[in-house]
Amino acid sequence: MIRAQFAMVINLDKCLGCHACAINGKKVWTNREGQEYAWWANVETRPGVGYPKLWEDQERYGGGWVLVNGKLRLRLEVEKKFKPLEMRDYYTPYTYDYKALFAPEVGEEQPVANPINMYTKKPMEIKWSPNWDDDLGGANIYGKADPNWKNIQASIYMTLRNIFMFYLPRLCNHCLNPACVAACPTKAIYKRKEDGIVLIDQTRCKGYRYCEIACPYKKIFFNWKTGKSEKCIFCYPRLEVGLPPICVETCVGRIRYVGVVLYDEDKVLEAASAPEDKLVAAHRSIILDPFDPKVIKQAKADGVPDNFIKAAQESPAYYMFKKWEIALPLHPEYRTLPMVFYIPPLSPVIASMGPNGTYDAKYESIIPSIDEMRIPLQYLANMFAAGNVDEVKKALKRLVAIREFFRRINVEGMSKMAAASVLQEVGLSIEDADLIYKWLALGKDRWVIPTRNRPPRLASQRIPSIQSS
Amino acid sequence: MRKGTLLGIILGIVVAAIATGLGAVLATSQTPVILVHYKQGAIPLNPDASFWSSVSKVSIPLSPQMLVYPQTYKSISRTLKVAAAYNGTHFALFIEWKDSTKDVEGIPGNISAFADAVAAEFPVNSSGMPYICMGDTAHPVNIVFWKAGRGVENMVAGSGYGMQPGEKYAIGMEEATTSPVEELPPQAQIWVASAKYENGMWKVVLMRPMGSVFPLVPSFKPGETTSVAFANWEGSLDQRAGMHEISGWFTLKFAPLTATGTVTPTPAKTTTVTATKTVTKTTTATVTKTTTVVKVNKGVIIGLSVVIIVLAVALGLALIRRHTT
Question: What is the number of other CB atoms lying within 10 angstroms of the CB of residue B271?
């Protein structure tokens, strides 16, 4: 069974940490009572503990799947000890006393809008926020607590010479093998057949919060007012009229890409059960080539509309994750097969000035040694490839090669053909390079969104007997 | 101790454990019928009303639900005390249980608590006894669910209830049954509830009209017998969904409408009911289990007592004689 699925790619190499995605997501969907603390889209600063605090520590929160004797099981079912999150795992939501800025009295001092607790409505001191460790502000304190330091001596990277940082924007991953769906006792969570968006039916949800424990990305938020859980809806009301999700459209750095991928539903379980070092490869293997006539034929037979197949052929997500392998899933070891992919960040090569004023960077062939980059490969691999450094290396090499290719043309004045040797080295063509340049450098055509071409549904049309007669 | 006796005890414990694990409550057979007392006038919704403190209650033992995901792995044993009454137009259940922690949902910013809750289920039709865990297609169950801080909900369970999608849609429900338990549409939300937590004790009164026009909600009739089962959630143990305590099925017997007084739940033959007074006027001073008493003809009591004493003496003498010979 071939299905279509919306997927997103986020280019971390260009994320400038402006939080426009988070703010707009909040303004559009969760700017209301009950969801004060909820950020369906958020931006984290790494190394850091993230939001909610230490969400990647599954020993603490019990999210995702584990292999037990080769069979996939929910971690929360294997070790029955996990509790849903508490407000202290997030932060105390606050607003500001804006009225103070417009106070009629003219005083000696500038008016100040003091923070106010959103629940008690009383002044408070801010002690944590959705991105407390922003801009290295707290990295010397919290950075070491980052769960991605596995097999790395973290203290080395806390020194001034070696320190690094990058932003990690997050949202619901609309997984192919969602743990939240499996954990829901009332079957209130479902994955939409037509485009794979994972949704919580607010009429069926009883607020049992097993989904919240099961989601390894901690992207399900309990609404204390309605007693039901809520999550990112991939802005499906926008997608249905051909618009991209709000976080994508408002991305200032133009680093978010949305498209459709076709995948083999029958292979999902197999891919999610792969050995850890092969998880990324297994994940890629179930994404199908939308140009393959066999795939097209089967997709049509399985009810995928023609415009979805066409969109899959133009999908940035297909090219970046499947074809070029420059995008990677976030924490594949949770085995949920997440469908938001990340292009890992490049970073400067650690080098020093040579005695003759030359730049003493190590190069293997023309491409600088990826191992010498400031952000340790192992750290990125722990985050995006279940520890498999080779996957990260491959992606970074290709990104460097693209830069080198265009540098040769624009700076050295080489012809495209002559410059292409650097592309050959990493297995890319000139056409690939042009397309990558269009998407990653220029930020053009960042989304390809097919719609179902449904006419608006009126309430009177809902009675089937009237329609058929 | 003899080997056989020991084996018997162990076997008994094993059987009991298995039965409990399967959701069967062993005590059911020994527990009296829950009698729905007839009351003239309004039934108080206030759990503190003297009517509810005076009316007789039945103890409902509970055991952890271990059949379906999510199973109850954290539990403390507890017992519900249940009373029921109707007044011709309305039916009410009074449920109380000991709970050392008051766990309420819906407090601004509080996402740490699961609420204490209680539920009662009734067979939707009289075609047979439904499966205790959420009924089945032929025998759906109607569930009233009360949750501290959230209120009361009327629900139905039983794999589609044998209804066509169109039929379900016509009565205001979702066409496809995708959840084991579904909330009924607004017109079927006929329950009201009030609750009080005091001195380590929850008291909840659930009330609804006797009759129902909604197909998946049973109507109750005077003199009729139906069934009821209970479930209870302890919020402080994170109990919610299938993680909870359940009872077995109990008989729910509506007293006949003709008896305007009350009927005692244990049908003792020594008392005769005279249909003159209502429950609220009775005294509870000398009553132990049957706290709801009415004015009874003194002569009848004396007469019956004499007969019983004579019978008891005769029985005693007979036993002594048999023992001595």
Answer: 18
